[in-house]
Amino acid sequence: MSTRDLYSRPVDTGRRWEIPMAGNARFTWEYDEGRARLLDLYQKGKDKQWDAAGRIDWSIEVDPCDAFGVPDQASPLYGTEYWDKLGESGRRELRMHQASWQFSQFLHGEQGAMICAARIVECAPDLDAKFYSATQTMDEARHVETFSRFLHTKLGLVYPINDQLQSLLRDTLSDSRWDMPYLGMQVLIEGLALAAFGVARDITRKPLPKQILTYVMQDEARHVAFGRMALRDHYRQLSAAELREREDFVIEGCLLMRDRIRQYEVWENFGFPVKTMTRILEGAQYFNMYQSFLFTRIVPCVKDIGLWSDRVRDAYDRMGVLDLSRQDLDALMRRDEEAADALDAERFAAEEEARRAEVRAVIEEAET
Ligand SMILES: [Fe+2]
Ligand SMILES: [Fe+2]
Fold it and tell me: What is the mean pLDDT of the chain?
């Protein structure tokens, strides 16, 4: 079914969103030198490719009105008069819209990631980075395929790209400096997405979103690691003025993303004006915790790549996320990879057990 028929409000899918290309495509004639860490990551990228059509069990049924199985307490409306006014059917519909909004932003973000990764193949100066980004481009294509299939076949409702995400993508892709797609996409957009995937993966009680998020996160852990490595090397050589420009980009990008996750598009559909919703969201304890948690991957990464001036620290302090700089990114990423291996082991053990039970039943029947 055409996505046009599934959008929450009319979207002209015949029109493309076009951002003029900026900067240079770069060739290199040095084929035999590469940084070992980047080449290792490239090897891993090749080894760990998977096919969404085979690895994910698409036969699992999903209730579109309870796709994640998240407890009611997680809703910012819970405990307010509006929650009661919605009634059970309104709450079911709200859950569907929130899940759709979330997965739709993942989908549009993944398309952005695919385009940025392809851009990095073009513009990065060294072959090791081009190699790695080529594997990432394929990873992101598989992610677009996966989220699109979930939205089309399981939820049946798609939200248009959120304004803040679109604005950050535009800024990232229209900049001619070769490190900007890394900074905007690999550090900010992917960093936020990874934390959002992680929360959803850990709280969902539903097997299909769990599989999707766990397997996608296994790939994303590599993507963020790549951004860190490439930028750390580059930023050591930049002048104070050049670093300052990157810091401004990071501060502005983080503020944009903090607003992005407020899902105003959903609330408007349900008749909650922005002003009312802002007041509710600011008083919602769980939501505020969640909002801060979404910076778990970005803040330590920004510190790690060397954009850690007083201005950046002050901005994070005002956003209430400065303490997250102490998070151990390597440990978080190891956990993402282990979670995927553990889920595979659990699923294959269950399949093996079901197969054995079938064999036992056949034998018993033959003996009687
Ligand atoms: Fe992705
Ligand atoms: Fe990614």
Answer: 91
